[in-house]
# Entry
Amino acid sequence: MEYEGVLVLKRTHFEPRYVLILPYTERDHCSYMKAAKFYTEVQIQQSINRRKIYKNVNQDSPGFFDMIISCSSIEESYQQLKQLIIAYCGLSTQTSEAG
# Structure
């Protein structure tokens, strides 16, 4: 979800959790998108520009995001996100491994 959508949801009665997931570096971010062979150069550049916005929001408004996951691999970020969801739902890791 884009930043503007998050701002709208924050003004509702819902209590969503916002997790910012960013590769460690801009170079890594570009590499992931290029490796996917799904994005155009324009889309990649737009994503990099948005990345800067999210980093600035995180620096200027501590607590805006409930968690920030900075990682060097998709698998690493997935595992961190999975653990966050398991903890948030109050599930044990044994329960989650069975499902």
Summary: The chain has one domain: 3-98. DSSP finds five helices and two strands in the chain.
